[in-house]
Fold each of these.
Amino acid sequence: MIDQISLGYSKIMTEMGIKNKILEHDSLVEAADVVAQLGYTLNDSVATLIMKADDNFIAVLRRDVTKISFKKIKKLLGVEMLRIATPEEFNKITELEIGTARFYVPGIKTYIDKKVFGKKTILGGTGSLTSTFQCQSEDLKKLPGIQVVDVTSEIEEVVTNLKTTKRVFSGIRATGRLHLGNYLGAVKGFLELEKTGKYETVYCVVDIHSITTPFKPDELRANKREIIIDYLAAGLDPKKSIIIYQSDIPEHIELAFYFSTVETIARMMHLPTYKEKVKQHPQANTMALLNYPILMASDILIYKAGLVPVGIDQEPHLEVAREIARKMNQIYGTDFPEPVRFATKGEYIPSLTGEGKMSKSVENSYINLTDNLDEIKKKIAKVPTDSGKGIMGPPPKGIDPKTYEGKEKYSELVGKIPSGVAALFEFVELFQGLEKRKYYEKIYITTGIKYGQMKQELSEAIFADLKPFQERRAKIAEDTKYVDEVIRDGAERARKIARETVQEVKEKMGLL
Ligand code: AQP
């Protein structure tokens, strides 16, 4: 049950015009634990820092993934001294426990870093350890006397990791053919990082992960090879990247078992990804499925990889990998990095059904990389839309629709576009550019939109992007010797690294 502290705060914020939701969870202090349990990431949460600037206290709201710049705040306020408030000072100012600071701190001036508005929906403290506040970031501008400022540097985690990390790891399950979500959310990141030439990149077909949900052996055997061919056709260079099957390096499973000694069953059971898969396959709630995130941590950490190009859906698993790295380092003195996600522009590709993400195992949700123009057209044609009649009619002549207010504001109407249409607009942005998306949004809201023409053009744009991939793929698939050699060579190179890590862990854990 939501406690009175959170309810009271929610009421005050509602009265200020800030619509909100209170999300319940276990009693937790660390933001990382809260977001993981709620199925979000640190990218979604905003911290309120209470700081002392010369003689005054101030509140600074910043995204949890950004780093505060003391220099910028000092310059902005024209102060000499700036520091984080002590726990006693924090309690006195907020009358709250550490770890529960709210967005609204009466009595002191509040500065909101502009990156807070980079996320539409954000999470923050409620004053209670058992609940979290959720609202639209734009609404925070309604807080009394706030000032929007630019006081943080780049996204902290990625920047520090990019500087220190030497290796990159990622993998894809062999549960079907690759789709646009896998390509834009993951493979594009593989390529980007390979191209930098700065890292040793290890890209895997995680075939053991494929047996954590129901599977057919013959299909798995065929699918895993197809994904290696997809990797090569997408442009991965086996001279630069190590390309492997997970099951060729059994050390992944060995290390996962050692890692399982530092994670609890309760933690694994709370993961949103686990709950989703159990819902999808209630008959297959297996130990293997529960262990999925531990094996994923092992896949990454066995190569001591600090950067992981994956879609945003994998963030809760990365949180587990970071946790395991921290615990192993603390308990056994290992030196695992805390891996972070390398995000691409297509970190979340919506399903063609308009509900949730594009997914191999969700019928009618995906476009495969191998689909021809006809197949793409048929799939895009099925994306659910509405009448497209236009909501507020054209603005009076000479008036920009963005500043024109009919019954409702233009900006608010953009947020209300139905999910199928919004998914189409997302694809338009990715394959035809942002300007085209803005144009479609504008006519959708004003004069009305003709979906037939739009879907035709979009299908052609998607196919134009996939065609060179498909041509390369056909050639590579014929060259069985080459594909076999890539897999053999990858396994040899990967095992050398994996054996070293397992040896080190065994020694540190007292097994050797
Ligand atoms: N819709 C998506 N948008 C962006 N990235 C996505 N990824 C998957 N779907 C999207 C990313 O693709 C990589 C490989 O995913 P996976 O094969 O490990 O498993 P998955 O995430 O479970 O992919 P599917 O298609 O949803 O498979 P099934 O249906 O078998 O579960 C990951 O980096 C993932 O983020």
Amino acid sequence: MAERKNIIYIYCKHDKESLDKKSKVEEVLHQEGFSMTESHEDANIIISLGNDGSFLQAVRKTGFRQDCLYAGITLNNKPGFYCDFDYNNVSKMLHLIRHAELKVRQYPLIEVKIDEHQPFYCLNEFSIRSNIIRMFTLDILIDDTLFETFLGDGVIVSTPTGSTAYNKSVGGAVVDPMLPCFQVTELASVNTNTFRTLGSPFIMSGTRKLKLRVHQDGNDFPSMAADNEALGIRRVENVEIQLSSKKIKTVKLKDNSFWEKVARIYL
Ligand code: NAP
């Protein structure tokens, strides 16, 4: 990193507090000789200012860039899973960028394709849930072979870094991001003699393909989300999910491994 000219783009919410803090960070960066840009296409470092939700948005709004490094700065002194730096200690981040003391860690993404729509990526998870009070039915296929037929509220397909988020709240396992895989968790499945699902979360190798086939029975317009963004697609038949070859590159700090973060945040 030291040899290369670093051009920084900062993503944050547009409320006054965030914008004021953005100006302050920019001022420090400027004084330290860094170049800033208002156009993320010109940057090779993208910083999100906010919480993990802001980091997810920063990555999404800048198009899951493969040729740049992402870093998250928290504003409330509360460490997040994606935010390694604190607003009150920006100089530490600069030191690391300058002196190449950082290693790059790479977070897996999943790629999701809904019917004929353009594929998109998720850093945390893709979720599909019934939009109305009724349950809905899904065939779940692994590598084009029917695995189970699900009746219930929905399913979540999470990445390893997303495993500590929504997935964890519904009993999914926390997964090491060094494993190229993705996980499927159920939301309130019905298990009777007619409908039977595994009933436990399952983790799939990144070489496999998952397909969700929504039964066209009148409740075929579930609500779907990619991380913290609701999708505008109303009717759905097939959702294909696989591990992407793309990864998000972010900063790896000493004493801040994924498992150290898990321990710090949850234990
Ligand atoms: P939010 O509803 O405002 O907050 C969701 C919470 O999840 C925040 O505390 C956030 O941490 C945390 N979070 C986000 N990504 C995480 C990760 N990878 N590991 C551990 N915690 C994580 O929404 P948001 O901040 O925009 O985040 C969107 C995420 O919320 C979704 O991707 C989904 O995973 C999660 N979610 C969880 C549930 C649930 O657990 N019942 C329901 C819906 C959505 P920060 O405080 O650092 O932002």
Amino acid sequence: MSRDLAVFNVARAPDGALTMEGVRLIDVAREFGTPCYVYSQAALMAAFHGLDRALRTARAGRPYLICYAVKANSNLSILSLFASLGAGFDIVSGGELRRVLAAGGDARKVVFSGLGKTADEMALALEAGIKCFNVESEPELERLNGVAGRLGVRAPVSLRVNPDVDAKTHPYISTGLKNNKFGVAFERARDVYARAATMPHIDVIGVDCHIGSQLTDTAPLTEAMGKIVALADELAAAGIPLHHVCPGGGIGITYRDEAPIDLAAYASALQAALGERDVELLLEPGRVLVGNAGVLLTRVEYVKPSTAKNFTVVDAAMNDLIRPSLYQAHHEVLNAGESSAAPLDCDVVGPVCESADVLAYNRRVSAREGDILALLSAGAYGFVMASNYNSRPRAAEVLISAGVPRVVRKRESFDDLIAHERV
Ligand code: LLP
């Protein structure tokens, strides 16, 4: 790979060792074992500040709030870091709400997305006093009205509308098209708002959408923004003024050679859509804040040449990082040390008993047994999507802060694996 490593928040030391915040990743692997997720606090902060600066400039004193999408990486240390920077949070479950609160996040800055909220989750969020529910259907609205009524409170609500915009990303992470399970159809939105406005325990406060993830072109995002701002205008004219507008998350990152989104241009496009309207702008970014701030370290178990195809077999697998198997996602693979091994054209595969257990297809890798490889851009949708398939304990998570690596989640043990089982 010839590209600048800086976008991945790693660098090569003069002796060839791959470093993050000046820390040699082979030392991290030696100290904490593999597979191991490693995050850079400096990179997390830089990502947050980069987006925050773009919004602050574009909004020029008008209100906005970055609600970090917890699903991208919900480690408590990361939530606590973003909370300390003033972030709000976008959650999709009671579990994520509890994590935000455990990490010291402010419930009043939490928006609750997701199309299957249970009555218990609604009650938990109402009791915590969250900022807003992003309601995704009419039956959900009815249920929320009922739960809020039983608790004697009013639920702040924003409808997640489906603007029918093609995000042009992988179909599994595209969410804004008509045939999708998410959101209220755009044509229905006015009627649903009108109904919501009459409900005794609902306060209509906003409009929300989210069209997909890993978008590398902002045109669909700004098109969707235009649609929801126009809807907000119509609602205001109909006597339902909104306090906030949210175009969701979706900002893509560099995995291979994608040009990064120009955040300043994106923020000013959003501002251009809003103009002088007196509303708060909310965003729900996940990946862009954490994706390039993390790597997954794995050790080479075997180099397995074969007639049709060569394989580098590593100790991480699809249970640790499922993105390549599930979305044909690309993660760069680098030897974390300096390898004198001859380059081999191969697939980098894990030990799980599935042909789909491939972490990287058709790469040229120089590695010997025992070498440490780094899979880059693994900070988003990495550990959070890990499972125990094949009875594999989940990896450790390490956060480097001010040049010091610390465990922020212990590697699971065999006892953890069977803790909830009974014979
Ligand atoms: N808001 C809502 C309502 C969402 O559903 C999502 C992501 C986000 C915000 C954050 O999107 P982001 O800024 O991270 O693109 N596991 C997939 C990505 C799934 C995204 C699901 N929703 C992956 O590994 O690519």
